[in-house]
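Question (not urgent): is this output format expected?
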Amino acid sequence: MKRIKSLISGNPAGRLRGPGGAPGMFCLALFALFSCETYDSYKDSHRRLGACYFENGANVEIALKTETDGVATRAVPGARAKSFRVYKDPHGSRYTCLFGPFWGEDGKKFFYMNREMKGVDAASFRVILGNYARDKKYVYFRDKIVPDADPNKFHAYNADSGRTDRFIYHQTRKVKGVFHPPSFKQVRGRFWKDRSYVYYGKPRLVMGRLPGADPASVRVLNRYYAADKKSVYYMDRLVPGASPALARSIPGSYRETEETIRYGKIWIVRGKISKTKKPAKAAGRKKAPRKK
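Got this back:
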């Protein structure tokens, strides 16, 4: 529910409807925010304009499915249903209506969700991926302009991060610590590389470099570990003494499996070599009998 409140501004004016079949007293107990209508029944009674936008008479409103299969609606002020057009994510199968985002226009005004955007060139506007879109002048993250981003050179990695030839971005903020943005790409999971360095983390404000890691030979073992031709790394830290030829990810139900790998007959747990014994299994362990 918090996610929906953040997507549709001015929550007190929004109408939230609860799951179908719920008794009337149940709705009243939720401060009259809920009525007994499901998201499916709402869709059947309203014409869909595209994505999460629906026609309500001559007006437009957004309808989002809640976690309880109810519906949360919010009017789009000033939008005309007759001429309303929706811009969809070309990768739309990867993003649901619950998480949005969507842009639309009615020939006179341009909208992100239920908020009007000023100065957008509707003729050249295109959705790039997820939260990113562009027109002939700017790159947008939702309804915000991404600073210093060239719309002709912007590439989105995912819904919340992207790059140009000059900068790496997390949402609208520039990420620090990347040496060469044009060659910056994902190896796998949280491991990234450019032509000179290997990095760990999500592209946010600062990326951590793996000390001395070779971008050409780096391979990812699991979510936390990687190895190149010389060394093994735990996140962005070197594991001293570990041989990359012997290091391997351990499948199975061990406790904290992804933070545990095997180095020959030795176990590496959270970046430290353990010469004692393998970690206990998280599933299938026998409990000690209780003393009578």
